[in-house]
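Can't paste images in this forum, so I'm doing it all in text. The chain is below; anyone willing to post the predicted structure tokens underneath?
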Amino acid sequence: MSERDWEPGYKSVLIREETKRRLQELRKALPERDLNQERRLATAAIEYCLTDAVARAGFLALVKDIVRLDLDTTCPRAPETHETYRRRDDETTQPFPEESIP
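Text version of the structure:
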């Protein structure tokens, strides 16, 4: 990790590429982009889901969809490499339509 990637008080979290693009689109649409940095938006979204019972239920319901998406878009390579490759599916497809988010 380079110095540029490190922020005091933050740890790395992996998110799907589609989610990263949607987060970037949200940020671009917001005023005060410096205040609404991706790390802060992601932290607020996770905190909201962890502290609000209704949001948490919707959040956990999406986990099954994400597991299916992960299984559909990755397949293991030879066991000795522990790498994955992406299938050549249409990456422009949104895996979670807005109406599926509570």
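The chain has one domain: 13-100. The first strand starts at residue 74 and ends at 76.
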